[in-house]
């Protein structure tokens, strides 16, 4: 039975799902050294933001197949290191959207009305109505940095509160922003005009320290900043200084450069700052959502099925996966086949998407073809996660072309591998949307479903050759399940594709190549 380590608190609903397929150990607050010591036992790791999955931890794993982040941000996981090791990293892109957006909105209103400090003062026995005079958000300008899932929900609610919305997000269109009721502007303009700035971006090298002394200087003395995205997007020392010097009015922070927040100037800024301990996703509803979402993906991967929200399988979202699933199998089979026909070291793989496939998102199909191509060399170590990296490290050049006019089949895939031993090609299509058929080998038209053991010959199309091959195989007790010849002209060159019931015994391939008229022969295991 597989073993799953849950190293941060997650909802029981997730544990229940994992328990269907695995032994689940919940061990929270592990020190890095403790995690390194035990990670070798586990097939899956489930975390939230509390566990840092570093390169050392990933390298110490020996059978880890999946890291599941019960939340959105995967900045606490060394994703490139996981990718190199073929470990799929999944998250829950939508499970806590509402929770995080509502926390940001709650922070904005709390900061405007000094609710935390006013509450604390009443609880101390005071009745101070002067100190806590606030500001309204109605008709104020909210600058949203990052108009993704959380930013969009914040926009939706803020709009209903009568706020004017500016947004900065270089990856979304003006039309989309307008649909959400936001005016897309440059960052500088947002900094200059916003009364409230709320951050909803991932932490990346581009966004680290986005709010710093220089950008803070562009803001109005009445500006309030809300960060429920990630620590490190704000330079905390610069922010504390700006609030102290009255350059901006205040800030509400849920996330910090280093968590838990250690000694910090931020704690000394009174009612102009609100600090919460990374609570954005901490609602009962969100925790159930993310736990189920991620546990289901871990369960699926442990059962050998694909994950729906893998962050390190390029271009493979759930909708695309659904649409391309049968073609992924086709691409993988063809990659495996052409790799075996080419033998030796493959230097170039041409991937041609034909017919309807020419209009599809091709990246997953290319990855699947590479996975198939590398299977002989890497066996189970190659998967959708690391196939592209492994190919790159082996110097395999991938050329992708499209031909929408190829109409023999609704959609077909043509792979051509050139390596140290020459060039070979295969084409395949799906019949009835499901069944894989090989439709061409080395330029010769055929129509056969692939089988586990196959034999291909390149020969001269002449009488008697099929009989000779048949009796030779028979003398070695090899049973032929099906056989088909593909030729372009009568008595010219031809290809024979045979499905056989068992692997070809040693030595027989050389004898086949000696048969007069047979120029070459290849045995393939799929
Ligand atoms: N405090 C908490 O507990 C929680 C925090 N989060 C954090 O909130 C953030 C946003 O989450 P979602 O909205 O779900 O993600 P999302 O992926 O839907 O949206 C992020 C948006 O940021 C934009 N973006 C990326 N780089 C940018 C840049 N350099 N400048 C401006 N925009 C940029 C993207 O185009 C995208 O539209 C993430 O960092 C996530 O980790 C999420 C959930 C809970
Ligand atoms: O989902 C996210 O990105 C979060 O920041 C939530 O973090 P958490 O799971 O509450 O530790």
TrEMBL record:
CDD domains assigned to the protein according to its UniProt record, in alphabetical order: ACT_3PGDH-xct, PGDH_4
MF (Gene Ontology): NAD binding; phosphoglycerate dehydrogenase activity
UniProt keyword annotations, A-Z: Amino-acid biosynthesis, NAD, Oxidoreductase, Serine biosynthesis
Matches recorded under InterPro entries: ACT-like_dom_sf, ACT_dom, ASB_dom_sf, D-2-hydroxyacid_DH, D-isomer_2_OHA_DH_cat_dom, D-isomer_DH_CS, D-isomer_DH_CS1, D-isomer_DH_NAD-bd
Alphabetized PROSITE patterns for the sequence: ACT (PS51671), D_2_HYDROXYACID_DH_1 (PS00065), D_2_HYDROXYACID_DH_3 (PS00671)
Entry EC no(s): 1.1.1.95
Protein family membership: Belongs to the D-isomer specific 2-hydroxyacid dehydrogenase family.
Involved pathway(s): Amino-acid biosynthesis; L-serine biosynthesis; L-serine from 3-phospho-D-glycerate: step 1/3
GO process terms (BP): L-serine biosynthetic process
Domain of life: Bacteria
Coiled coil residues, start to end: none
Function field: Catalyzes the reversible oxidation of 3-phospho-D-glycerate to 3-phosphonooxypyruvate, the first step of the phosphorylated L-serine biosynthesis pathway. Also catalyzes the reversible oxidation of 2-hydroxyglutarate to 2-oxoglutarate.
Name of the protein: D-3-phosphoglycerate dehydrogenase
Root EC class: oxidoreductase
Catalytic activity: (2R)-3-phosphoglycerate + NAD(+) = 3-phosphooxypyruvate + NADH + H(+); (R)-2-hydroxyglutarate + NAD(+) = 2-oxoglutarate + NADH + H(+)
NCBIfam families: PGDH
């Amino acid at each position: 039975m597989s073993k799953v380590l849950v190293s941060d608190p997650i909802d029981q609903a997730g544990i229940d799902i994992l328990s269907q397929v695995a032994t689940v150990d919940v061990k929270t607050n592990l020190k890095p050294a403790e995690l390194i010591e035990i990670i070798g036992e586990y097939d899956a790791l489930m975390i939230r933001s509390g566990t840092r999955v570093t390169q050392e931890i990933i390298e110490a794993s020996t059978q880890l197949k999946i890291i599941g982040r019960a939340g959105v941000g995967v900045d606490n996981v060394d994703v490139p290191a996981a990718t190199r090791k073929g470990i799929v990293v999944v998250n829950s892109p939508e499970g806590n959207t509402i929770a995080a957006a509502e926390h940001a909105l709650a922070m904005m209103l709390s900061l405007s009305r000094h609710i935390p400090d006013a509450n604390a003062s009443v609880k101390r026995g005071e009745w101070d109505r002067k100190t806590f005079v606030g500001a309204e958000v109605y008709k104020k300008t909210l600058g949203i940095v990052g108009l993704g899932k959380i930013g969009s929900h914040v926009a939706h609610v803020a709009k209903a509160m009568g706020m004017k919305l500016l947004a900065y997000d270089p990856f979304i269109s003006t039309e989309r922003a307008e649909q959400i009721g936001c005016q897309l502007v440059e960052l500088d303009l947002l900094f200059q005009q916003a009364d409230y700035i709320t951050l909803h971006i991932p932490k990346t090298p581009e966004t680290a320290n986005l709010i710093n002394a220089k950008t803070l200087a562009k803001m109005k003395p009445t500006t309030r900043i809300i960060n429920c995205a990630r620590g490190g997007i704000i330079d905390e020392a610069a922010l504390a200084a700006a609030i102290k010097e009255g350059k901006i009015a205040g800030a509400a922070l849920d996330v910090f450069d280093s968590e838990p927040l250690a000694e910090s100037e931020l704690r000394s800024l009174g009612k102009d700052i609100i600090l919460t301990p990374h609570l954005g996703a901490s609602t009962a509803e969100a925790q159930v959502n993310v736990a189920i979402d991620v546990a289901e993906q871990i369960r699926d991967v442990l059962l050998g099925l694909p994950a729906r929200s893998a962050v390190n399988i390029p271009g493979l979202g759930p909708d695309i996966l659904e649409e391309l699933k049968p073609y992924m199998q086709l691409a993988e089979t063809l990659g495996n086949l052409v790799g075996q026909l080419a033998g030796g070291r493959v230097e170039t793989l041409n991937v041609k998407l034909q017919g309807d496939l020419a209009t599809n998102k091709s990246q997953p199909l290319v990855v699947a073809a590479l996975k198939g191509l590398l299977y002989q060399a890497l066996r189970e170590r190659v998967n959708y996660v690391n196939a592209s990296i492994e190919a790159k490290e082996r110097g395999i050049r991938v050329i992708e072309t499209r031909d929408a006019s190829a109409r023999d089949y609704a959609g077909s895939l043509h792979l051509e591998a050139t390596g140290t031993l020459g060039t070979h090609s295969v084409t395949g299509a799906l019949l009835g949307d499901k069944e894989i058929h090989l439709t061409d080998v080395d330029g010769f038209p055929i129509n056969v479903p692939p089988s586990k053991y196959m034999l291909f010959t390149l020969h001269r199309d002449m009488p008697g050759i099929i009989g000779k091959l048949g009796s030779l195989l028979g003398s070695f007790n090899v049973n032929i399940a099906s056989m088909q010849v593909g030729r372009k002209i009568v008595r010219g060159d031809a290809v024979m594709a045979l499905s056989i019931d068992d692997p070809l015994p040693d030595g027989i391939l050389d004898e086949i190549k000696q048969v007069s008229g047979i120029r070459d022969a290849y045995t393939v295991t799929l």
